[in-house]
Amino acid sequence: MNTRSLLLSIAFFILSTALCAQQLERHIIAAAGSNSTTGSYTLGEVIVGSTSNGDLEIISGFQQPFPVVDSPLNVEDISKTISVYPVPAENRVTINGPTFDPELTDISLFSSQGQKIKISPIRSKNKALLDISHLPAGNYYLTLLNEANSTIAKYKILKLK
Predict the structure, then answer these.
(1) pTM, whole model, 2 decimals?
(2) How far apart are the C-alpha atoms of 87 and 132, rounded to whole Å?
(3) Taking the domain 75-159, which CATH number applies?
(4) Domain boundaries in the chain?
(5) Average model confidence (pLDDT) for the chain?
(6) Which of 37, 68, 139, 156 could form a disulfide with 112, with the two C-beta atoms 3.0–4.6 Å apart?
(7) Which of 126, 105, 108 is nearest to 116 (CA)?
């Protein structure tokens, strides 16, 4: 009888740990209304633990994904030549550059929740003004768009008053 209860206890322990699952999810909250999703799965992982020794840390029992988020092409190149000022701003924002690329066609302004607030065409070769006086105070995201309506550069704008 003792052996039977021992076997039942072992079976119960194995089944109860095998039925439980742990999951850690990483969420990416992107600016300007974009989003991305990553997914992964694993089987097993009954025992979870970590060991560290100085700079080295080993974590067992969970997948450790490192998602790669690619930025649009030429964002770094164009961002170095274009300046957006003043930040923080009250009434208007100036976008200035030596010469805008002919591909740059529009300026879009998004709220911090990702809602498109305003889109205005770029009319000058090296300077554009964006009126934000009617907007409430808060964080906004300014994006420069090309002819294909793809984002070329992004800037964070802080609106005061």
Answers:
(1) 0.50
(2) 12
(3) 2.60.40.1220
(4) 2-60, 75-159
(5) 73
(6) 139
(7) 108
